[in-house]
Design a protein that fits this description.
This protein has helices spanning 5-27, 73-80, 96-108, 113-126, 138-143, and strands spanning 48-55, 60-67, 82-84, 92-95, 129-131, 147-149. Strand 1 and strand 2 (60-67) form a beta hairpin. The protein is built from 5 helices and 6 strands, in the order H-E-E-H-E-E-H-H-E-H-E. The chain has 2 domains: 1-95, no CATH class; 109-141, no CATH class. With 150 residues, the chain is an alpha+beta fold.
């Protein structure tokens, strides 16, 4: 029986990332320093290529991964300092630093999603990106990136 995405997160991915996340957080000094890592070599011969867009404070970058059951994308991204947008076969990953900042931001600001969306749009514009479609619902913006390079 095939699991739904939320079940995959709940029963497989999040439990498997808990200890590595805590280790990464400690080793990176709460996401401030990069962590050198080396994934174990695998002989399962089930490797597939995966191209993912990574977002952090400074840039968007495309990253190519070789994923397999021994080295899943979520674990590789965690050790790179990112969190994937999907449990299997993600196409987008966001830096742990940026997620930490956004978590703190949402703890401190009043619930004004329009202001947040407009701020994000202005921030991306200053980096040379342009929002192709005006989206006033931040939930949509979170889950469906609609910006492109100018």
């Amino acid at each position: 029986k095939k699991m739904k995405q939320w079940q995959q997160w709940l029963h497989t991915v999040i439990p498997s990332l808990l200890q590595p996340y805590l280790a990464y957080r400690r080793l990176s000094n709460h996401f401030w320093n990069p962590v050198d890592y080396e994934l174990p070599m695998c002989g399962c011969h089930q490797t597939r290529k995966l191209r993912v867009i990574c977002i952090d404070f400074n840039a968007l970058q495309s990253v190519d991964l070789a994923v397999c059951p021994c080295a899943p994308a979520a674990l590789q991204f965690l050790w790179m300092g990112y969190f994937p947008c999907a449990p299997l076969g993600p196409t987008l990953a966001v830096s742990l630093q940026l997620l930490s900042f956004v978590r703190q931001l949402f703890m401190c600001i009043p619930p004004n999603t329009s202001a947040w969306c407009e701020s994000l749009e202005a921030y991306l514009a200053a980096m040379g990106y342009k929002v192709d479609t005006k989206v006033w619902n931040c939930h949509v913006l979170y889950h469906y990136p609609i910006f492109s390079t100018s």
